[in-house]
Amino acid sequence: MTAAILLTREGRRVTLFERGERLGRKLSASGNGKGNVTNVHMGPEHYFSDDREKVARALSRFSNCDTVRFLEEIGGIFLPDARGRVYPASRQASAVTDLLRGEIARLGVEVKLNAQVTKLWHDGQFQIVSGGQTFGADRVILAAGGKAAPNFGTDGSAFALAEGFGHTVLPCSPVLVQLRCEPARVKGLKGIRVDGGLRVLRWGEEQFSVRGDVLFTESGVSGDAVFRASSYATKGDLLLIDFLPDVEENKLKEALKRHTGVEKLLCVVNNGLGRALFSRAKDEEELVRLLKAFPLEVTGTLGFAYAQATRGGVPLGETDENLQSLKQSGLFFAGEMLNVDGECGGYNLQWAFTSAHLAAEGALK
Ligand SMILES: Cc1cc2nc3c(=O)[nH]c(=O)nc-3n(C[C@H](O)[C@H](O)[C@H](O)COP(=O)(O)OP(=O)(O)OC[C@H]3O[C@@H](n4cnc5c(N)ncnc54)[C@H](O)[C@@H]3O)c2cc1C
Questions:
Q1: I need a surface site. Which of 28, 134, 323, 332 has the fewest CB within 10 A?
Q2: Region 167-187 average pLDDT
Q3: Quick one: 295 and 329 in the same domain?
Q4: pLDDT at position 27, please?
Q5: Are residues 295 and 328 in the same domain?
Q6: Do 337 and 317 lie in a common domain?
Q7: Domain assignment of residue 36, given as a range
Q8: Distance (Å, rounded) from C-alpha 345 to C-alpha 355?
Q9: 306: in domain
Q10: pLDDT band at 233 (very low <50, low <70, confident <90, very high)
Q11: CA gap 274, 267 in Å, rounded
């Protein structure tokens, strides 16, 4: 959508093919419906890719400030929250989609809906097959998403279009997703939400640590901190949850001495959590350990259906600085189709905006 706007503004004739009934359905669902479009704290360290340096160069060419400027030029006001996550002032993701759709309509971009592209090849010019018809084009930007959240039209089938030109598609895995753990370990904790500290350990070595929301579910853990940790965690890793990240162990031990039984935990942690932890601890030492470093082994994730982003896809190394294919000139990539995924907090949409600008700029040359 962004690339279509930029190219049409420069006088190019653009056709957008969208397999769904509407443009931008995933964008409308982003940020819990609030639309976290970018982040104040931007940098390549927030991204995973086969070529992070290229991500860095891309971000320096089209930054978080450029995203806000681009959106505000179309309309609206975009503001950061205390953690640097940038949202529309209205906190409505669907309104961001409405802005982009409105601009697309105003510019007269040709939009084909319910129009899945099923074949794409080049024989002097690109040939695009959609709905039984073939359309010609001199440039193509593939921005068909990854495999996450297939209910928004992204089931990974579009990777075949890139493979047709000889591109590699790196194995895909879901990220920004709930983590599964042994059900017995989370039994009785379902629905409990804490503002905790979360660490990811592999073979005893810390991979990542974060402070934030942890929500216990039937099959594991969810919440903002878990989504962020899911970018770093893999099957077999150990999660350690600190239910009291602001309380030192000595102070905690003092407080626990004042009562016997489960009453020890009154006003220390949520009562339900307190009962569950108390019943698991054989002595006070273990209770302190469970409160400060509750262990959960990661057994997997909830999968693509529940994920917000995809790791893997078309390697950045198979594209030039404007994300033009090194296999087929005139073919560009943008967004989650590429092997770039960001942390939770607006980094994936920033990549979508950044890559769309680079691809559009390349397509103009
Ligand atoms: C629930 C949810 C919440 C999220 N929240 C945030 C957030 O707050 N901040 C953030 O930064 N990121 C968020 N993300 C991630 C972010 O939305 C994506 O990374 C981003 O939308 C990717 O943009 P894209 O243009 O590459 O692909 P998409 O937005 O996935 O769009 C690709 C489009 O291509 C269409 N398509 C696929 N195949 C074909 C085909 N063969 N022919 C025609 N059309 C096709 C699809 O129908 C789809 O509409 C969220 C994701 C989800 C699922």
A1: 134
A2: 95
A3: no
A4: 98
A5: no
A6: yes
A7: 2-173+311-364
A8: 17
A9: no
A10: very high
A11: 9
pLDDT the model gives residue 307 = 97
Dist. CA 27 → ligand 1 center (Å): 6
Q: Are residues 185 and 56 in the same domain?
A: no
| Predicted confidence (pLDDT) per residue in 6-54, tens digit | 999 999 999 999 999 999 999 999 999 999 999 999 999 999 999 999 9
Provide the 10 A C-beta neighbour count for residue 88.
23
Q: Whose CA is nearest to atom 30 of ligand 1?
A: 145
Question: What's this model's pTM, rounded to 2 decimal places?
Answer: 0.94
Residues 160 and 186 in one domain: no
Task: Report how far residue 156's alpha carbon sits from residue 90's, in angstroms, rounded to the nearest whole number.
Answer: 32
pLDDT of residue 68: 98
Total domains in the chain come to 2
CA distance from start to end of the chain? 19
Q: What is the CATH number of the domain that holds 260?
A: 2.40.30.10
- Same structural domain for residues 157 and 16? yes
Q: Given the structure tokens 């919440």, which residue do they identify?
A: 223
Question: Do 47 and 163 fall into the same domain?
Answer: yes
Q: Residues 323-354: pLDDT tens digits?
A: 999 999 999 999 999 999 999 999 999 999 99
Per-residue confidence at 245, pLDDT binned at 50, 70, 90? very high
Identify the residues whose C-beta falls under 6 Å from ligand 1: 17-20, 25-27, 29-31, 36, 116-117, 143-145, 148-149, 152-154, 158, 308-309, 335-336, 346-349, 352
Domain boundary among 255, 275, 301: 301
